[in-house]
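>> received
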Amino acid sequence: MPCSQAPYTVPDLQSLDVHTGFMQQALLLAQRAGEQGEVPVGAVLVRGDRVLGEGYNQCIEKHDPTAHAEINALRAGALNIGNYRLADTTLYVTVEPCMMCLGAIIHSRVGHVVFAAAEPKAGALVSRPMVQRDQFNHFPQVTAGPLAQPCGQLMSDFFATRRRQQRDLKLAAASIGKDINEQ
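>> returned
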C-alpha cells in the first residue's frame, strides 16, 4: 500500500532497534502460537522499556474467539498495573490488528501500535482503515514494518501448511469413499 494512503509512520533509525527488539519478542510468541496450532500472532505491551504484558493467539486452546494475541497482551498488562487504561504504552504485534483488537486498543488508550506485517483481509489500521476514526476521542499512533518479512512469512507458511493438510484430508476421505464403494 502506498504511504500516501497509509495512516502510519515508518520507524526512524533511532527507534528501529527498540522496535525490532520488542518485535522479536512478539515473533517468538507468534511462533509458540503456531506450534500449538493457533494462527501465529504474538503481541508485547510495553511502557518505556518495561514489558507489561505478552500474549499470543489462544482462541482454540481457550475456546474463546476473543483470545487474540493483542487482547491477551492488553489483559495481562491491565492486570499487571491494576488499571484498564494503558496510557503511554506501546503494543507490538506481529500482524496488523483486526477490528475487534483495534476496539480494545482504542478503549484501553494504548498510545502507540507497532505492527510488522499488514493483514490485507482483516487488518483494521492500514489495510481496511476505519472511516469513523475521527469520531474517537483517542486513536493510537501507528508504525508499520519492523520485521515485516519474517512475521509475514510465518503467517504465509502457517496457512500454506493448513491448506495442504486440508487438501490431504480431502484426498484421504475420497480414497476411503472409493474403497468402500468398490466392496
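>> The radius of gyration is 19 Å.
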